[in-house]
Design brief:
Layout lengths: L2 H6 L13 E6 L4 E5 L2 H9 L11 E6 L4 H12 L2 E4 L1
Antiparallel strand pairs: 1-2, 1-3, 2-4
């Protein structure tokens, strides 16, 4: 066991990797979209019966932080509640 390597890669509490800033958009064929700030929020919305699970033709789009104010504003809102939209 190389203790120098252990010291080099030692993590400070809370021992978690930072969560990536990803905007998750569930998109239905008709253009209906719901944006979420985390996968947990998406799952909670589905488990609450607000969204169908595994509906044919539905896609999940993952949008990484692009640095724009628009992306950040939508992400911050989607962390609080699902954001419904239409394309």
């Amino acid at each position: 066991l190389n203790e120098d390597v252990l010291v080099k890669y030692k993590m400070e509490p809370p021992f978690e990797f930072p969560k990536p800033r990803l905007l998750l958009s569930v998109v239905w064929e008709g253009g209906r979209v719901v944006h979420y700030g985390s996968m947990r929020l998406l799952w909670d919305d589905c488990w609450a019966g607000n969204q169908p699970v595994q509906e044919r033709g539905v896609n999940l789009e993952v949008h990484p932080d692009d640095g724009t104010k628009e992306w950040n504003d939508l992400f911050e809102r989607a962390l609080l509640n699902p954001i419904r939209d239409q394309r």
